[in-house]
Amino acid sequence: MKIKTKLRLGLGVLFLMILALSLIAAGYIYALKEDTENILQDNYKTLDYSRSMFLAMDEIHAGPKAWTGFERNLKEQQLNVTEPGEGAVTRKIAGHYNALKKDTDNPQLPVLIRNDLAELTRINMEAIRAKSDKALATVRSAFIWIALTGTVCFLIALTLLINLPGNIGNPIRDLTESIQAIAAKKYAERLHFSGKDEFGELASSFNTMAEKLEEYNNSNLSQILIEKKRIEALINNMHEPVIGLDENKKILFANEEAVKISGIAATDLLGKSATELAEQNDLIRALIREKEGLHGSMGNPAAPSLKIYADDKESYFEKEIVDIMIVPTGERLKKCIGQVILLKNITPFKELDFAKTNFIATVSHELKTPIASIKMSLQLLESRQTGDLNEEQKQLMSSIKEDSDRLLKITGELLNMSQVETGNIQLNIQSSSPYAILKYAVEAVRTPLEQKQIELVVHADEQLADVKADMEKTAWVLINFLTNAVRYSQQEGRIHIQLTSTGEGVKFHVQDEGKGIDSRYRNKIFDRYFQVPGSSKTGTGLGLAISKEFIEAQGGRIGVNSEIGMGSTFYFELAKA
Ligand code: ADP
Prior knowledge:
The chain is an alpha+beta fold.
């Protein structure tokens, strides 16, 4: 219970009890006043009248003066009849007195009058005793009630007297002692008020303060400086660039590597706002940019590498931004106090990658010539000039031809891929007829179509508007779509090829009735070297990746719609010329 409520409750009850005590006392005093006032008013006066009448009776024979005294007192008594029976006695006195007035010599009448007066006195004395008993009873009950309420008041006051000063004073004393302890640098001092009242809250705030002070006190300055130097040395000796920012993007530290690649002097870097520096420095801008929004060229969310020219050579780095989260002393919620930008030097990997690409490019280029000469020799062998071949030799020749075609396709794909990887796609974009591209591609796949006896259904308008395209590369993509469609179609199946105008461009569709592509792999088939598990292993997994690069390099769009068991529709769209 809050102290405020406790005080209100205690003092409120005490106030009510004192009020009750005062009302009870006042009530009883008023009752006593009523009782004693009646005795005086009703009975004392009657006794006085009857005494005067007694005295007047003694002098009744002295003359008319005594008569007047008696009559005056009798009249007063007749007006002051208050007790039961008093009226009858008074009337008797008046009767006997009137009779005596008429017969003054009657000796009986004075005796009767005196008896009457004695009776009147007795009635009033009894009334006085009854009233006195009543007053006594009132006094007794007043005593009981006043004592009872007084005791309750006393007990409450006593409880308050014993508890209240301690309840308020003790925590204040403890707090004072603890504050004095803190002032004397005893930071381990804590308050232990368990209640949920104001003192409980005070203790919790005090303890948080003491905890913080203790932490500050323990973090001795020289110790901190040593720690700082140690961490600085550690960061400086790292071979990878590291930059630390505070929550307002102010540069807190940058190791030697970071200073070297930034090209800014350390003094101009440290303590400066990275946002302001980014306005003039491209590298800092690239470093503090949180979300790159870029993805790997094949749709993979790959971390983009930064190409940095420093130390007279080109280096490649991968960036990582780490948020520094801490829980401040005495608090509960985590708070971000800055960021650390880490750069991983990936130059050796990049160099290996370049070497691989160059190697592939050279090898595939070098292989092209011997393969072409094999093909030429095959053609010569086929012609009659070189003599007839028997069936077995013809079969061998056809398998050599198939293999050399495959080899030529693979080397072509590898060469294209190396061009894509080095960013050397040479485009020859010109206004081209979609129908011409289609015709060229269809012509190229005629043999495999015939081999598998596949029907090719063409829905295309010859008059379709020209597109902005590199004829050769676009035909390559369409041929790749068609070869895949043939490869994944059943014997004697059907392939639809369609050209549609889409307003801004022309869309090429190749639809087959093959096994389709599982939704799990649909986004991956455009990745390099990816092949759907369980599909024919004769390819390289590069065809669709190169197609995507070729179409996107021409500003077009490529995609696939497919359901497993429902066939696939590959498409690309190019802008109208
Ligand atoms: P590959 O040289 O292996 O055909 P691609 O890049 O052309 O390489 O194709 C990648 C993968 O996509 C293939 O391994 C195949 O599983 C799948 N794929 C391509 N075209 C089709 C198609 N028409 N029907 C079913 N699967 C296909």
